Amino acid sequence: METFIQLVVDGLSTGSIYAALALAIVLVNQATGLINFAQGGLAVLSAYIAYAFVQAGLPLLAAVLLAIVLSFCLGALVERFLMRRFERGDPDTAVVVTIGLLTLVTGIVAVLWGYNNLQFPSLFPLSSVHVLGAVVSVRSLATTVTIVAIMALLQLLFLRTKLGLALRAVADNPASSALSGLPVGRLLMVGWGLAAALGAVAGALVGPQLTLTPGMLDGALVYALAAVILGGLDSPIGAVAAAWGIGVLENLVAVYVPLIGHDLKIAVPFALIFVILLLRPQGLFGRKVVVRV
Amino acid sequence: MTLLELDHVTASYGPVQVLEGVSLTVPEGGAVGVLGANGAGKTTTLRAISGTVRTGGTIRFAGRDIRGLRPDQVAALGIAHVPEGRGTLAQLSVRENLAVGAYLRKDRRQIEKDIEYCLELFPNLRNRIGSRAAALSGGEQQMLAVGRAFMAKPKLLLLDEASLGLAPSTAKTVYEAIRRLRVDSGIAMLVVEQNANLAFSLVDTATVLETGRTVLTGTSAELKGMDEIRRAYLGG
Amino acid sequence: LSLTGCRGGAQSSGGGTAASPGITDTSITLGITTPLSGATAGPGTCTVAGAKAYFGAKNAEGGIKFGDGKTRKVDIKTYDDAYDPQKSLSNFQQMVSDNVFAEGIGLGTPTNRAFREAAISQKVPQVLVMTGDPIFSDQKQSPWQLGLVPAYQNEGGAFGKLLASSGGTHKVAILSQNDDYGKGYVSGFKDAIKGASNISVVGEQTYEATDTSVDAQITQLAATGADVFFNAMSITPLTIATLQKAQQIGWKPSWFLPSNTSSPTAILAPGGASAYPGIYSVAFSKAPQSPEFAKDQDVVKFLSDLKQYGNYQGMPAFPHCMWSYIAGATLDQAFQKMTDPTRDSFMKALRSIKGFNAPLMLQGTTVDTTMDGQPAISSVLVQKYNGKGYATAQKFG
Amino acid sequence: MAARLSLSDVNLHFGGVTVLQDVSFDVEPGTIFGLVGPNGAGKTSLFNCISGHYRPSSGSITIDGTEAVGRAPSHLARIGLSRTFQHPALQLRATVLENVVLGGHTRLPGGPLSWALGLPFTSRAERGLRAEALELLDRAGLAWAADRPADELSHGLHKGIELWRALLARPTLLLLDEPAAGLSHGEVEQLIATVKQVRDEQDITIVIVEHHMGLISALTDRVVVLDHGRKLMEGTAAEAQSDPRVIEAYIGKDAADDAA
Amino acid sequence: MAALTSRRARIAVAVLVVVVLVAAPLFLPAIVNQSLVRIGVYAVAVLGLNIVMGYTGQVNLGQIFFLGLGAYVTAYGVTHGWNIVLVFVAAAVITGIVGLLVALAAARLGGLAIAMVTIALPIVGVPLAKRLDTFTGGSQGTSAIFSNAPDWSGLFNDQWQYYIVLLVAGVGFLLARRLVRGKYGRAFAVVKGNESVAASMGVSPYWTKVLAFTIASVFGGASGFLYMAAVQYTSPETLSFGHSISLLAAMVIGGAGSIVGSLIGGAYYIVVPQLTNAVDPNLTTISQGVILLAVLFLLPDGLVSLPRVLRRLTRRGTAARAGGALPAGAPSATEKHHSTTGTPPHHAPAQVQIPDAAPEAPEKTERHGRS
Lengths: 293, 236, 397, 260, 371
Ligand SMILES: Nc1ncnc2c1ncn2[C@@H]1O[C@H](COP(=O)(O)OP(=O)(O)OP(=O)(O)O)[C@@H](O)[C@H]1O
Ligand SMILES: Nc1ncnc2c1ncn2[C@@H]1O[C@H](COP(=O)(O)OP(=O)(O)OP(=O)(O)O)[C@@H](O)[C@H]1O
Ligand SMILES: [Mg+2]
Ligand SMILES: [Mg+2]
What we know:
The complex is a heteropentamer of chains A (293), B (236), C (397), D (260) and E (371). With 236 residues, chain B is an alpha/beta fold. Chain B is 40% helix and 28% strand. Chain B starts with a strand and ends with a helix. The longest helix of chain C has 20 residues, at 41-60. Chain C is globular and about 65 Å long. The chains are: A mainly alpha (293), B alpha/beta (236), C alpha/beta (397), D alpha/beta (260), E mainly alpha (371). The B-D interface holds B 13, 16, 35, 37-40, 43, 84-86, 124, 135-140, 142-143, 161, 164-173, 194, 196-197, 201, 231-235 and D 14, 37-41, 43-45, 86-87, 152-157, 160, 178, 181-187, 189, 211, 213-214, 249-252, 254-256, 258-260. The structure holds adenosine-5'-triphosphate (2 copies) and magnesium ion (2 copies). One adenosine-5'-triphosphate sits between chains D (14, 17, 19, 37, 39-45, 86) and B (128, 135-140, 165). Chain A: It is found in: Cell membrane. Chain A: Belongs to the binding-protein-dependent transport system permease family. LivHM subfamily.
């Protein structure tokens, strides 16, 4: 039983890593209608930027905040000078552009900081607490809390604010939105900027655990995508819930179904996604996209 | 007082130029119709004004040259455009669509009242206030597009076949509302409308386009009297 | 048939003293294909840096005096294969066309395997490859190949032997990477403890190199109550994470870590390794990060060469930097022994090195290329972490 | 003679919303049938039920006596049903000709392998269909547009192209959703002539949804008026236009005269 | 008459191309042949991907899995001494069957959900390949040599491999080209464009997707066979997820929805890493990113659109003076499609003459980006 609880706790903490990235993917998707493969790469870059500030002697919190601000600008610039050209075109092309961006960012990080693991200081203490007989590190607890907070903020942003409405309108139909006076270009920049800033938060949260390498989020990206699709592309709550669900389920299956084991446990979330999407194409928490003939 | 003035406006899609010189004026508080066959360039003329197509010539609005402005800048000057076809934000609810229409406005309280006005005008929308625009029937979507333009409280309204897909009685109601808007708030309008009866019920003057050129301009009465016009647009 | 593979065949495989491609009277060209991008780029970069450091320094001294009396400079061409077998084959073909004398030192099992056959059929040496895959040291199967580092089995076996001979009863939990790396360690370990009734394996799990977390495996293994943890892991952040995780949930066994994930500074310190009763590893090269080697002549020269010629800043984060430096020294020996500027002569010379204590090698380990079935370095020493660096461990406990 | 299309007690709900309620009527072969009613009455939804895009919550729809409910739209298309969409849905990047030829998909023989191998019968069939499509376009005065990408044409022309696309399938049952929307008076007259000609030349039954009462009067043999998902009345166009309930719900009191 | 000569001219060009393709390896250096061989391998894989994604619009992130599966089947057959033709058939058919089974399930989903199911293929495929080591050789991989030139041919290995690839890829490309032109090409396109419309044209979206997906996997299997001909070795790394992403990028860069684009995509896949290696092996990631972005920035429709863009530019150049006076505005939202339509528009009778348009002012277009 103790092991069971510990496995659930472990799953939640791993799931939080996926969730951090998933939220950023949801954000950029809501604001631009795009699946952004570079999201992880941008988060990595942000983490390195924060790292560089720490190296330069800034206190950690200030470094992270500064990195968040810089990432916002960076995201906005990427939108303005790169993605803008592709936003009206074939969505497949835009996705490939984000793949190219991921490659480029990874390359830049590698050139600037190399491929060796760098130790990113943790915002939270390394100690741990006991909950229900399971050991939870303060770090993953704090990470989880932060993620829930971000999730709530995003939900508010999209459903309760004028900015959120404008972002969604632009993602839905930029041409039509412009006719109502929405500054489409600026809103897209804001959307990308927010997603990149959120990526910076994600990078700072998972950086200490994964240690910094240019490809540190490549593995998490697939999981994050899976979580986003499973939870519903337009739902921050869904993304987080699905990420946790995937993390926990994987662990339990790997341990209690020896035939699957740790090597094939990754098949479980995908099988689950398949079954759930058959029943609910919009994902667990997503709103159905209405298409009329 | 001229509000909008188009002088020898040209427009092109990519390498294809489709407007060859369109000239027209809309006086302040006036309503001008644009007539023409399929493909004559009516829609393109409206797009030229709202900046969604590449243009040449002169387009002046309230004394200011607006050619080359971005669509949202044009909208910010007080020009609302009901585009042709599905002009709604498909995955947003009816209420959200109307709220987006009022994006540029600051008077929060009045916005709520105006939404209420739209719902009175289009009772169909009231029942579906929470549905996504994409789920609406063709006519309901058209109503929503018109409603969204109303929400902007513009100085100039560009209507591109606003009656498209509307039931006769509804079309009538909408045009009645538009006329009221004109009378009450002095909104000027440029109207593309295939249903010439509706069009002439609203406009004072009209311009006839042929292959991207202005070929004729006249008052409603003058035009109604012309044989060619009768045959092509009015019947009988 | 042997001729058809390569139009340069007549030139390359001709007998006598006609020089092979890639060697002139003043220079010799070596090629390295290794991952310089992607997930394994960290160690991959090290393989290049170490080799460049060694030969850079030699070239600066004027070159290497070959067995045929000529002094040559060593030119190194590097190619990125991103750990993709298809790309490493492509790189090999490119090397042939670029007239490389020999290929070697590259990292990776599949990538080296991908062009093993091509290297054989074109008679291009593919030597001192950095993989523990034994096929490269089997002279019948791989006449133009030779491995560098101890087979993974040897490393696992060394630890197993130490444990078996400890006398005490131990329960062992095993976590291994799901590939030939992890499998090699585990099979070597198990072979060594076979028949030792005092050692029992109570839990065995695997993970994927792409995993972001192995917390679940640690939790699962901790539940077995093992007092020895054999962690055949090649991923740096995961190794740190396991060190942290196990102590968090209160599991404090003795650890075994492979040679390439046991860096005192990069892994053990951040992982808080002092909390455990003992961290064991195996090694054949000196660890420059260890304080005890800080003044060691080899290490000092190595570090300065690495910086100056290897274009590598700071402490090596992976042992592959040292290993490839040792590989350089081994090649140097072969060069000094080869009497003809041919690949044949080179292979013969390379296979005749014995008892060579290359720079950076620990006391008690040597290069021995004469044993069929064994890579150039097959002897390893079990080391124990002492809070700062490593000391050779004579016995377990 | 058996009805070509027969609906009995068709119901359709979306969530809690009732879109169609107990709709029943028969359409005789060779006739032109009108379907009118206010916006949101359920006309397009009814088309979607007939063409298989929506599945009625209950009720039965038969085409030439065979049950259509539960069949895939593509299956129904293969047995002779063809339709246009209220909002033109063309392949915008493809040429006008390609769009029209697409309508003849079900008439082309052979499976993927024969087409990949380019067996002679496939190229013959393709050539034949293209010629036919060109002729249709030519008759409509659209030959000049054949090789243009569809999105270079104006909105009004899209409706026409949809019609030709639907016709190339040689349907026995054709559903037209507001074919006259966006056409000027003269163009509507042309459309009326075309539809009449098609009906006279082919064994075809046509159901038209349209708000243009002039077109409905000129073309239809019978009409059904829908209101709020229910059948309000059935009769001739003239009967409908003079029915007070219809005037009240749909045409509007003073619009009756100038809507034509 | 004119049609006849143009037909003859076309046949002449085709014959010339065939002759060049057949004769080329005899004169080219080995390294070039070897590169061409690998280009062929990936061109076939990209071609398959193009059919399901470029033409039919179903995002497929699993194509590399089919390449890997084909390679494993080939390796298994060769090491068990099957006849090589049988091996090829098995590689294509077994892969096709697996593809069909996956498609039967995946095609029930739409949009990104399909992407998720296909992403799972390589992700699960890698550990699976390791586990099934009796068939796959586990993580050490498996070698199989069948593509060395036989003595009687008097050819070098690279030449012989080239002919194997030319044969398989050539047939594959010809079949695909025919397929995407007629009935099924239109069916693919309409499923991509609008499934409801497809259905009402008698095109079953479900079966069309299944068909496209199965064809893609057969091409994947064939490319796996060719992979073994070219590389003679395979391991789980062959089918790693990252390569699937690269295939996707190669397809878009070559030109989505274009047969020639697939070939260019295959070339891109092979040549760019070689190029970046030659430039600086330590900077391959960054330079590959730059190249990818630069190509798409200049040619959003892929390299295949280069001639068209050049033609337009030169036409622009001559008309620049006349058009210079015309100020720029934003193109309409629908304008995006135009560059992909090959035929210059015929003149409508209504539009007697269409003077050439203003030169594109990129920065302006940028500023007005959206409409
Ligand atoms: N995106 C486009 N690209 C190229 N040409 C276009 C494009 N859109 C419209 N055209 C062409 O421009 C001309 C004018 O089109 P426009 O849509 O303005 O006509 P319209 O008068 O509104 O017609 P309708 O009554 O059918 O709506 C037509 O000849 C049309 O073919
Ligand atoms: N897929 C759907 N989801 C939700 N509601 C729907 C859906 N399809 C239709 N409806 C609702 O059903 C009602 C009838 O729509 P329908 O399109 O059939 O109307 P219509 O009679 O064609 O109207 P119009 O003349 O405006 O085109 C509308 O209120 C619409 O919102
Ligand atoms: Mg129009
Ligand atoms: Mg309708």
